[in-house]
Amino acid sequence: MMFNEEHLPSNLRKVPWDRRTALGVLLNPMRVPTVMERWCPYEVALFEAAILLYGKNFSLIQEAVKTKTVREVIGFYYEWKKTPHYDQWKKSYVEDERELPGAE
Q1: What band does 92 get if pLDDT is binned at 50, 70 and 90?
Q2: Contact, 101 vs 55, CB < 8 A?
Q3: Where are the beta strands (DSSP E) in 1-104?
Q4: Nearest 5°: CA angle at 58, between 6 and 90?
Q5: How far is residue 51's CA from residue 46's CA, in Å, rounded to a whole number?
Q6: Pair 97, 81: CB distance under 8 Å
Q7: 3-state SS of the chain: helix, strand, coil percent to 5?
Q8: Nearest alpha-carbon partner for 79 in 54, 44, 28
């Protein structure tokens, strides 16, 4: 995978940086990983498939993901919705947000 600025945590994207500084920050043992960094691509794919099926029924989404708690699923959902990936996902899979099960 090619490294680009999108892969940096949001706090690093807000300030000027060079690659050496960014790598140092990312490898710092004191740094706490973000919610998004704690999910592997497979877990994200399961989450996205489950949300299409179950809407915001986080208990059912957790049963599909299996490796995360309901609390982790909820935390991921609210962070995921803030990402450019979510915008792209929504355009690809959801024609009308009212079509999602559980949509308000």
Answers
A1: confident
A2: yes
A3: none
A4: 40
A5: 9
A6: no
A7: 60, 0, 40
A8: 44
3-state SS, residue 94: coil
Which tokens go with 100? 């999602």
How many whole angstroms separate alpha carbon 69 and alpha carbon 6? 26
- Tell me the pTM: 0.67
Residue-wise pLDDT tens digits, 8-30: 566 555 556 677 777 777 788 88
Whole-number Cα distances in Å, 63 to 30, 57, 82? 32, 10, 23
Cα dihedral 90, 91, 97, 102, rounded to 10, equals -30
